[in-house]
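As agreed, record copied across for absentees:
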Amino acid sequence: MTAVGVRARAASRAMARASTALKNAALLRIADSIEANREALAEANRRDLARATANGMDAAFIDRLTLSEKALRTMVEGLRQVAGLSDPIGEMSELKVRPSGIQVGRMRVPLGVIGIIYESRPNVTIDAAALCLKSGNATILRGGSEAIDSNTLLATLIADALAATGLPRDAVQVVGTTDRRAVGALITMTEYVDVIVPRGGKSLIARLIAEARVPMIKHLDGICHIFVDRHADPLKAVNVCVNAKTHRYGTCNTMETLLVDAQAPAGLLSSIADAMLEKGVELRGCPRTLAALAVAGRVAADAADAAKTGTARIVAATEEDWRTEYLAPVLSVRVVDDLDQAIDHIHQYSSAHTEAIITEHHDHAMRFLREVDSASVMINASTRFADGFEFGLGAEIGISNDKLHARGPVGLEGLTSLKYIVFGHGEQRA
């Protein structure tokens, strides 16, 4: 790992001076290479999936590991979109002349070497490489052992494309060992690594928070909420909520808790519940939710009773449910008195990732935007849009719910810093 760090630091200096044209050429060559090697990538991914299945990994894990045709197309499109984005490196801003005669401003520069630790998602290899390359950084990628075949092939394609365009092969290095000690080394190599971006489960993030010496851009949980206001459009509410929960279960921007105004349009809660049940989602409701949905055969005494009967999938929520990121077809539901109680609930239980309000009331919408303190806050849109690609960043290297440096989906600007620059004419300080 020390040797990897030394090579990355050297490559970072070359990347900091690389031209926009050269970086874009490398990104487009990687995209072309992925297209040309679709079958080989699919075969490598099948080997990874076979191992994961044999090891008993759950459906959400398998979903994250799969390089589907759509996933490959998205990777290629993301690379080309990043190539088409403006290059932030070298941008000068806030230039102003001081009374002394000097001109002071700021310049955007790369962070340097970025270590990225992730589990199961081989598409992260491409997303991370693309953003780090365009923002002039070198990167060290440590994917999970479960995706080793997919990541190894992707690493080869990236390295070959870099070399072919005149950039250092070591600008993107994929750690070849699956030894967990490599992670411990990477997160403490302060002399070689400038920032760590973890993408993985709660146990991985918790370990890094406890052990890392290198600064991190991170989020721990994705406990995302949607509040259906009393002024919600019923059809819009049903469609957005179903998409936010059922589009994909294993992602951090999936809705995990639904809050419904007690004065929402009549029958709206039942309509949302019926749509969720049709999709196979188990509902865990507060007492007011259970009372509203107390239709024969639909409310079970508890989760065990629901599993036993096989039909009733509405159960009583516990305190722990409000704090849980399920990553599964399970949804917590609470009826609240009004917007104030919804915001209070979000402040108490949210992980500050993404929240949305469904409403046609302008003042309620604006209050929600101002008062909900999360990285992404939405009006009448699915939480699934909290994504770098959907936000027009080309791709994302991760999502941060921290408040310093980067917040929300982290794209090109999140991988840069600002330094002060001064233009003088021989001025001396009096």
Observations:
- Residues 250 and 327 are 4 Å apart (CA to CA).
- The chain has a mean pLDDT of 92.
- The longest strand covers residues 103-110.
- The first helix runs from residue 2 to 16.
